[in-house]
């Protein structure tokens, strides 16, 4: 796969994922929509493993890695799917943009990584300040949005923690096998949550955008996007890959506004730009002229 094509695929898929999550939950119970997505992706992934003759390790170390990864696949995604009924889809991308910051903080405690430099703490404050501005926007977020906001914060917490725990496990598992293992581990969690929340019946309407959104997320969001991301990560500097987290919130906001009639207010833009600015400082603050003073 061409590296530019893979990079573009990651940007497009990550930008459209929040909106399609919202669409997939319009006529299908959100937890059930997530369950269907992961189930279809798992079946397709198992087929790819067979075709490509890639082994799915089942030893303890591999299973531990799948379990850690499922914190992100089930924990983060289940919260995100439920939250999509309460908050604009663009906000999902903005909040998930904080994942690198939370991952670095978790890394200090769980991976014994070096303490954050001063400029990175400043970047973190800017990003969370931007989030605070967004939360005070009564037009984009009302009182009815509070459950969704808390669920999204929990989602990005679990997503970040999952990535750090997977890194700590250090299991040498092929990325596709890792994905399939995590998907399989996530299925019982989605099923139990669906049952506990009332076991809403499955209504499939092939003419609805919810149906096609589930298929899109299963094929592209859970498989093509993952493979493209790891392909890019293998061939490009981490700083270049990090640009994706700065680009996708802007695209997600625009798509939500144009295709889902979601409000775009000045305060929402201000908060988004602060979050993106904080992320930019977090990734590239070491290059600014005053870096010696901010270390």
From TrEMBL:
Signal sequence annotation: none
GO CC terms: membrane
One Pfam family this sequence matches: EamA
Family, similarity comment: Belongs to the EamA transporter family.
Transmembrane segments annotated in the record for this chain: 34-52, 64-84, 90-111, 118-136, 148-166, 178-204, 210-229, 236-256, 268-285
Entry protein name: Putative DMT superfamily transporter inner membrane protein
Classification via InterPro entries: AA-Vitamin_Transporters, EamA_dom, EmrE-like
Keyword Membrane applies: yes
